[in-house]
Amino acid sequence: METADIGMIGLAVMGQNLVLNMADHGYTVAVYNRTTRRTTEFVNGPAAGAAVIGTETIEEFVGRLKRPRQVVVMVKAGRAVDAVLAGLIPLLDEGDIVIDGGNSHFEDSARRVKELRDRGLSFVGAGISGGEEGARNGPSIMPGGDEAAWPEVKGVLQSNGTPCCDWVGPDGSGHYTKMVHNGIEYGDMQVIAEAYHLMRVVLGMDCEQMAGAFRTWGEGLLDSYLVNITADILGHVDENGEPTLERILDAAGQKGTGKWAVISSLDLGYPLTLVAEAVYARVVSSLRDQRFEAAELVGSGVKRADGLGAGFVDDIHDALYASKIVSYAQGFMLLGAAASEYGWNLDYGRIAQLWREGCIIKAAFLDDITAAFRRRPDLPNLILDRFFAEALDKAEPGWRRVVATAVQVGLPVPAYASALAFYDSYRSKRLPANLIQAQRDYFGAHTYERVDRPRGEFFHTDWTRPGTD
Ligand code: NBP
Fold first, then answer.
1. Which CATH architecture has domain 178-426?
2. pLDDT digits (tens, 9 = 90+) for 276-329
3. N or C: which end of the chain has fewer CB within 10 A?
4. What does the domain layout of the chain look like in residue ranges?
5. CA of 425 to the centre of ligand 1 (A)
């Protein structure tokens, strides 16, 4: 009976494409899906003629795998993964390896690493990005968990020929990195959407003109997958020759990984403000009926601004680029905070390279991030790197003009504005937090430190009796 090098559980869009990719690279893959019809259709359809073995039961599936077994699980994150593991684990033997390639929460992955280790098995939580196209032709893969498994699974995970898969670290660090990637993806999409909104409303550009602007940007500093697909989207016309984009309802969906990143940032006490704004912008967009009611009641003040020349398109470019730098600076800060909290030793320059190809946030810009971390591996924030400091300095005038103009005409730019607020806060020697401390001390005797005393000495004032400390 023919045996397989590796097994895949879960044959929805990601599982199917990963199987075809592995088969292209010389691996024989056994496949299993809860609903057998999906397996049959896949084996007789897209996988016909490929080295793919369809199985109908989990027992048959496990029996077809070479030992030590390697099983990739590609099902919906959460309970489905636990359900699959509950059926799979009792059939496995010591030394077998399970790779969860779905968008699992990093805490679930950390738990599963321990659970499988206790049973003599290895668990790898591997975040995979790139969607259907990436899965088929070479995704970005962020594996973490039981490091002993890495030499065993490295071959197949890196087989798609891209450098965008390397070991991240222990526990749930692979899925944490994927979560931050997804948060950054939310941010990248929002900063692009704000540029489109400004061009469309404030400058009155049509889709063809906007497509041209994005196409030009995609050849420069903003060279990235998302900017390039935005040019394609803007250039797409329907059967009547009308822009397809204009027909799409302006209410954005989400699956939750951006929210997870923001929750983690709050838990760790680190700012991820641009991603948070991007998540909330989707939420506000989805409140469409309320937006209409409010527009009727108080009016929608957005208007085209006069007197803005072609230079304003360059300003928008600079606002986008600067905001993107801030977003990545915050994302890498968060990775650093997680590494300290969970005891991971992460190579940030390498993580930037994992995102360089194969994933949704792939961009030339990631090479600059790798270079910054190669210059200083413990860089606390990209803004402290000379290259990015200079880039922000150069972009700042246009960035400010864009935010100021948007505020004046009433067009929301939450990502650009919050990024600018973070940039201004982060480089402030003095913030108004002294007043916040005084208020806290006034109403709650929370005490405060003083500028003229060493850190760690705490003072309390009786604020109702002037002249006392
Ligand atoms: P889905 O996330 O849509 O999940 C569908 C798969 O999960 C099917 O194979 C389904 O089996 C299986 N499944 C479910 Br639902 N509940 C199950 C259970 N209790 N036991 C066993 N199997 C169960 O698939 P996908 O879009 O291919 O994504 C797979 C993973 O990859 C997810 O974690 C996703 O977040 C992640 N991801 C997706 C993308 C993307 O672009 N789609 C990109 C990157 C990562 P059935 O056929 O019997 O219902």
1. Orthogonal Bundle (1.10)
2. 999 999 999 999 999 999 999 998 878 777 788 789 999 999 999 999 999 999
3. N
4. 6-171, 178-426, 430-469
5. 41
pTM of the model: 0.96
**Does 185 participate in catalysis according to the annotation?**
yes
Q: Which fold has domain 430-469?
A: 1.20.5
Amino acid at 24: D
Q: Which residues' Cβ are closer than 6 Å to ligand 1?
A: 10-15, 33-35, 38, 74-77, 80, 83-84, 102-103, 128-129, 131-132
Q: Write down the CATH number for the domain with range 6-171.
A: 3.40.50.720
What does the buried/exposed string (b/e) look like for 230-265 if buried means 16 or more CB atoms within 10 Å of the residue's CB?
bbebbbeeeeeeebebeeeeeebeeeebbbbbbbbb
Q: Is 456 left (phi over 0), alpha (psi -120 to 50) or beta?
A: left
Name which of 150, 141, 144, 151 is nearest 170 in CA terms. 144
Ligand 1 pocket, mutate which of 76, 140, 185, 255 (most atoms under 8 A from CB)? 76
Rounded Cα gap, residues 356 and 361, in angstroms = 8
* pLDDT tens sequence across 48-92: 999 999 999 999 999 999 999 999 999 999 999 999 999 999 999
